[in-house]
Amino acid sequence: MSKILINDLLAIDKPIIQAPMAGVQGSELAIAVSEAGGLGSLPCAMLTPEALVNALTQLCESTTKPYNVNFFCHTSPIPNLEIEQRWQASLKPYYDQLGLSLNDIADGSGRRPFDADTLALLNDFRPSVVSFHFGLPDEALVDQLRSWGTKILSSATTLEEALWLEERGVDAVIAQGLEAGGHRGMFLTEDLSTQSGLFALLPQCVDALSIPVIAAGGIANPKAVKAAMALGAAGVQVGTSYLLCPEATTSAVHRQALSGAEPHTALTNLFSGRPARGIVNRVMRELGPLGDAVPAFPLATAAIAPLRAAAEAQSSSDFSPLWAGQNRSGCQAIPAAEITHWLMS
Amino acid sequence: MSKILINDLLAIDKPIIQAPMAGVQGSELAIAVSEAGGLGSLPCAMLTPEALVNALTQLCESTTKPYNVNFFCHTSPIPNLEIEQRWQASLKPYYDQLGLSLNDIADGSGRRPFDADTLALLNDFRPSVVSFHFGLPDEALVDQLRSWGTKILSSATTLEEALWLEERGVDAVIAQGLEAGGHRGMFLTEDLSTQSGLFALLPQCVDALSIPVIAAGGIANPKAVKAAMALGAAGVQVGTSYLLCPEATTSAVHRQALSGAEPHTALTNLFSGRPARGIVNRVMRELGPLGDAVPAFPLATAAIAPLRAAAEAQSSSDFSPLWAGQNRSGCQAIPAAEITHWLMS
User: Which residues of B touch A263 (CB under 8 A)?
Assistant: First the structure.
């Protein structure tokens, strides 16, 4: 399609969406970016209903600007005892090392898909933008959001996914290049070889779709914003560059890793069951970043959580998901508003 | 570094290098691109000494413009009988299906690294540009090339490789994004998780290096050329978009696959022993694109060659390396000069 920026569609000044990053940010980062003229995002996948209401209340009280509320829409898996036991067995040596017991593993996955209950909670807030990861929820739920005037975004990692989303009426598609940090938004395939660099994915989506395409993955400085626009993007979604901002809740070990010597990231399913990009750490190195014996998303999280907590208490990032994209050069420990202004400079 | 195009460095009109593509082109494609004002490339890795001299003679007779001569500079491996036998055993069912015998496997790898003999052959031609894949050959050989005024290029797939090449005095680095077709130029690591999309790799190289950086991978239309320049590239290297040109020697099955329905490419080591990007075909699907039991580069080629020949004789691409990048949208069956002009339009 012809190049129309997302500014009008989303009623924002700058065509920059701060990527929702569950676990490393709450409403404070979203507020800062929205106030700076971009679109701040609240990641809700890991929030309890109470936490979600609190975060939304804080957002509403702190900004009159538009913001984005992000949800996962995976299908909750049926637990598989055999895979769970194999997974726990592979982690057992680490439990022993850290003086932990497998009995410490809590029930529950910690990540809820978007459902009718979530929709009901949103009713009081009626956010102007809702974005989804892993496809879209049931059509009736999306229709209800639309009836509020809410704009719907979702991520595509292949041209097929982008076309699928357009067919279902999303207002814009986020083309998530392989460079992006965090979870791959893939939902029509589990084959990682289908995942494409942004230079290949973005122009193909722009050519094939008649709705705006937002570029994500590896965008870490003003030149990259201009390059994405040159490729036809209507806006950009930036995550990694915000991770060191004071408004982010990025943990100390995560901040250290972002500034550290480990040169590269990898896709790993060890932390959740789905492939996500993070800085290579001990557990990824020792088990291999992509395991076969890993429970389905999001069940894998439960057994690694005690290891993570114990290690982080010793200032170790050995078992932490250190989500980051392939270009960390934009990470700066400065206010999110400054990052937002800088990206457009 | 500041944005200086490669035009002056390489004495060309357009900052476009036609990617050397062994097996699918000879001098004809290189001549067409050089005559159109870009830098045509002759891939020499699979040429016998006679064929190399013939191709260079044809180049010299057909154009007075600069051209690039490309070599691999891998270390030839010591054959491992056990791995070779496991590899042949995994291919045996296909041999049976096609009525072939494992005795049909020819000796020899078919790919020679650049060495003193190659240098001696080049002496009569003294090409203005030589590019390498998989690092650089011995320093003495490179020094000899330099003494002729030849400019030296090589590919980097990580920032570390780019810095390594700059330290050794190359004139420009080709930043090969993960989107690129054909062999990954990686040489300091075998870990595929280090491989980066162009959006992440290119700006990091541009920021860190003081020599020009040429962008490669997924560049398939004029917008992508502009985007690469916006990211600081001094030029672009384009391969896939030239594959359907009449001047290319791309096989019929390869041309068909490029125009066909299979939506995606993958990295595979089945055809040579090193990871290279090609369109997914039967042998990649059935054996998995990346095998453990594959002989070291370039020895894997020998055992798959008879299968390829027999299948291609039946117009089947089941065992052919269908090299292609992640963006095939630029492939057009038009003269290479037109592709070259179009990319700069």
Answer: 158-160, 194
> Looking up tokens 């932390």, which residue turns up?
A271
Question: Who has greater pLDDT, A190 or A293?
Answer: A190
pTM: 0.95
Contact flag B199-A221 (C-beta cutoff 8 Å): no
Judge if A96 and A44 occupy the same domain: no
| Cβ atoms of B165 and B136 closer than 8 Å | yes
Residues A6, A12 contacting (CB under 8 angstroms): yes
ipTM of the complex: 0.93
Q: Which domain holds residue B337?
A: 1-74+111-243+330-345
What is the count of residue pairs from A and B with beta carbons less than 8 Å apart?
128
Nearest-Cα distance to chain A for B201, in Å, is 7
Residue pLDDT, tens place only, B58-91: 999 999 999 999 999 999 899 999 999 999 999 9
Strands (E), A44-158: 67-72, 129-133, 151-156
**Least CB–CB distance from B231: residue in A160, A177, A227:** A227
CATH code of B214's domain: 3.20.20.70
Domain count, chain A: 2
The answer to whether the beta carbons of residues B311 and B319 sit under 8 Å apart is yes
| Strand pairing class (B276-279; B265-268) | antiparallel
Pairing mode, if any, of strands A276-279 and A182-183?
antiparallel
The answer to whether residues B203 and B232 touch, using CB atoms and an 8 Å cutoff, is: yes
Six-digit token string for A84: 């769970």
What are B's interface residues with A at a Cβ cutoff of 8 A?
158-160, 177-179, 191, 193-194, 196-201, 203-204, 207, 217-221, 223-224, 226-228, 230-232, 263-267, 280, 289, 325-327, 329
Q: 3-class SS at A241?
A: helix
Q: Testing the interface with A: which of B199, B265, B267 to mutate, by most A Cβ within 10 A?
A: B199
Which chain B residues touch A159 with a CB distance below 8 Å? Answer: 263
Contact B282, B272 (CB under 8 A): no
A48 and A90 share one domain: no
B135 & B192 share domain: yes
Do residue A10 and residue A129 come from a single domain?
Answer: yes
